[in-house]
Amino acid sequence: MFSRIRVAATCAMACRRHIRKKKGKPLMLNPLTNKGMAFTLHERQMLGLQGLLPPKIETKTSQALRFHKNLAKNLDTLEKYIYIMGIQERHEKLFYRVSDDIERLMPTLYTTTVGLACTQYGHIFRAKGLFISISDRGHIRSIVNNWPENDVKAVVVTDGERILGLGDLGVYGMGIPVGKLCLYTACAGIHPDKCLPVCIDVGTDNTTLLKDPFYMGLYQKRDRSQVYDDLIDEFMEAITDRYGQNTLIQFEDFGNHNAFRFLRKYREKYCTFNDDIQGTASVALAGLLAAQKATGKPLAEQKVLFLGAGEAALGIANLIVMAMMESGVSAEEAYRRIWMFDKYGLLVQGREQKVDSNQEPFTHQAPEQIPKTFVEAVNVLRPSAIIGVAGAGRLFSQDVIKAMASINERPIIFALSNPTVKAECTAEEAYTLTEGRCLFASGSPFELVTLKDGRTFKPGQGNNAYIFPGVALAVILSSVRHISDKVFLEAAKALTEQLTDEELAQGRLYPPLSNIREVSIYIAVKVMEFLYANNMAFHYPEPADKNRYIRSKVWTYEYESFMPDVYDWPESKVH
């Protein structure tokens, strides 16, 4: 359960001053102020709510019990998602109260259900976030001005081109920024009013959507001209012009080419990062550092083979190189220990298919026997770790897993593709075929695995939610102007530090998600210490006790009293 962290009294007073301007039905219609039947009798009488609610006065605990009882009904996955997000729209504090049970609700709130929700977005439309189309170019600032909140600190933006492993979903990709920002609040306590989800619609190359009469975006092929780049430039300027240069802008699910371009283009000009590249890298590195604890084999001695050579693979690989170099390995040797296998085969020098500039450092001289399949690559290169980020389904075949088990005493097998149907293998396959010797992590959740000998393993889920909420919390509170890759290296190390020996023995490579709030705060503290130590933070004065400072800024889902601040004067002063 999350810690019940109370914000400073001044915040509560500010909230009461804001709420006192509203009375009656508007209080119930605003999701941030609605308490449902938890409004007290005095609040109902003083705020014009008496008679607008049934007479029973509930506690938040009883409201949460009703929520879980409804959720336990025989609903399918999408119906549960619709129900949960409906609670958020009507009753935000209750939504985050029940999200306390994050380990249970994560599969419905985000991976894996959010992908399904995006594919069905036209049938379950929720008016959340800011929609900007390429037809709006030249007027983006006026659209940003339409957003009702004046103190946004974090923006998550997508153009919908590469939604999870599902491809181009166009404007239906809005479900991803909405889901990510829910996790900003649920995992790290970032105020929901300070979060802005954005979908930029430049068309879609998904022919099914273009033929769908219920599709909600532009009916045009995706614009890949200079106009697209100009639109993104205008968007970045509009956001920072209204909300300040330190506003955090997270890029999410852009196509591989654009993701790297925009990260290079904007990282020194804006406070920005790409979670698919840097967040994924950080959580994967944390898993490898945990594997290092389990095996005693240093990261610098691992040989890693990737299945996939896109933004996730390259992000992870570059951060592994940085971590190896920090331990004293040369850049040349670090790059040499990492190989990639994509849909055309092994990345080797002189191959027929083109290798882009981002892949070149990991393109090596071809071995004597060039493998044509992934299992051949495993047998030829003999890696200690395989990491799947291709989003192409069950490509860690039985032969691949058995080969890893024959080569290594403790093979590292990370099947990180999302959603579950796109995972390279299941946890059961990995543990069974390696006789429980593997160190396994996945992008989507898997249930406990029990082997025939009775041993039980809890698969580690390499969920980016371990990283990006804590990093975002530190970046926002430190007033960072630019985000270095070293921030994600520090976050990975901080995440691994929280894994206990007992959890490692259970097969976990990550702490339990049930403790995600404390995990995020710990990461935020460590990242903030790094930012100030390296002159990257611009919030002054520097907090002396960073743990206490961060906790004082964390948003709480506890109900505030909306009653006026009433008190008596000394009797001698009024007579």
Keywords:
five-stranded parallel beta sheet, seven-stranded mixed beta sheet, disordered N terminus, 575 residues, globular, alpha/beta, 14 strands, 24 helices
Explain what the structure shows.
The chain is an alpha/beta fold. It is built from 24 helices and 14 strands. Strands 8-7-6-9-10-11-14 form a seven-stranded mixed β-sheet, sandwiched between helices. Helix 10 packs across helix 20, helix 14 packs across helix 15 and helix 17 runs parallel beside helix 18. It is globular. The relative contact order is 0.11.
Brief synopsis:
The chain has 575 residues and is an alpha/beta fold. The protein has 24 helices and 14 strands.
Q: In total, how many beta strands? A: 14
- Give the helix proportion (percent range): 40-55%
Q: What kind of assembly state do the chains in view correspond to?
A: single chain
Structural class: alpha/beta
Total helices: the number is 24
Main β-sheet, in a few words? 7 strands, mixed
SS strand fraction? 5-15%
Low-confidence stretches: 1-14
Global mean pLDDT? 92
Strand order of the largest sheet: 8-7-6-9-10-11-14
Taking all Cα atoms into account, the compactness measure Rg is 25 Å
- End-to-end span in angstroms? 52 Å
Shape field? globular
